[in-house]
């Protein structure tokens, strides 16, 4: 499997600058890349040098037809439906980029709130060995 590259500092900076316009967006990292969530759903994020947004079908079609973006697949054969990777000319133009971010943001506000996942309780099974992490490994 190909190792993913970090997003450029310039792209990351631009991402965070745009996210200041979305006050209720929750910013967090996913797979080491900055992402923005609304109601528990990702509406925008970075992956390598791709800036992705989630759009409703009608907006996806407009983005593809206008050349504003391409279908997004983080790995070969793993197309993420509803997500588009914005074209470099869109990313470079703050107004165009903001337009597509707003389309995504508005779409996510129309979706039902995603319930928070319950944290998994760690339980020990009767015959499960518990590794003592405090013991040092023996030198070979």
Key features of this structure:
Aspartate Aminotransferase, domain 1, 140 residues, 21% strand, single chain, alpha+beta
Summarize the structure.
The chain has helices at residues 9-19, 57-66, 88-92, 94-110, and strands spanning 26-30, 33-38, 41-47, 50-54, 69-71, 83-86. It is of the alpha+beta class and 140 residues long.
Protein architecture, described:
By secondary structure, the chain is an alpha+beta fold. The protein is globular, with a radius of gyration of 19 Å. The protein starts with 8 loop residues before the first helix and ends in a 30-residue tail after the last helix. A hairpin with a 2-residue loop joins strand 3 and strand 4. It is built from four helices and six strands, in the order H-E-E-E-E-H-E-E-H-H. Strands 1-2-3-4-6-5 form a six-stranded antiparallel β-sheet. It has helices spanning 9-19, 57-66, 88-92, 94-110; strands at residues 26-30, 33-38, 41-47, 50-54, 69-71, 83-86. It has a single domain, classed as Aspartate Aminotransferase, domain 1.
**In angstroms, what is the radius of gyration?**
19 Å
User: How many separate helices?
Assistant: 4
Major sheet strand order:
1-2-3-4-6-5
Q: How much of the polypeptide forms β-strand, as a percent range?
A: 15-25%
**Multimeric state:** single chain
Q: Which sheet architecture does the biggest sheet show?
A: 6 strands, antiparallel
> What ranges have pLDDT less than 50 throughout 5 or more consecutive residues?
none
Order of helices and strands: HEEEEHEEHH
Q: What is the arithmetic mean of pLDDT?
A: 85
CATH class: Alpha Beta
Helix content: 25-40%
* CATH domain topology: Aspartate Aminotransferase, domain 1
In the CATH hierarchy, what is the architecture at level 2?
Alpha-Beta Complex
Overall strand count = 6
**Secondary structural class:** alpha+beta
Domains (count): 1
| Overall 3D shape | globular
Could you tell me how far the N terminus lies from the C terminus, measured between alpha carbons in angstroms?
A: 31 Å
């Amino acid at each position: 499997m190909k190792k993913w590259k970090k997003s450029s500092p310039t792209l990351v900076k631009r991402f965070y600058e745009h996210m200041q316009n979305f006050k209720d967006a929750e910013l967090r990292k996913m797979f080491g890349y900055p992402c923005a969530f609304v109601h528990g759903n990702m509406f925008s994020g970075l992956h390598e040098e791709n800036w992705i947004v989630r759009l409703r079908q009608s907006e996806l079609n407009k983005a593809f037809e206008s050349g504003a973006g391409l279908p997004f697949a983080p790995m070969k054969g793993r197309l993420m439906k509803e997500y588009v990777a914005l074209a470099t000319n869109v990313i470079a133009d703050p107004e165009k980029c903001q337009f597509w971010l707003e389309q995504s943001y508005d779409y996510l506000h129309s979706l039902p709130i995603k319930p928070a996942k319950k944290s998994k309780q760690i339980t020990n099974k009767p015959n499960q060995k518990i590794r003592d992490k405090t013991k040092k490994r023996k030198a070979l």
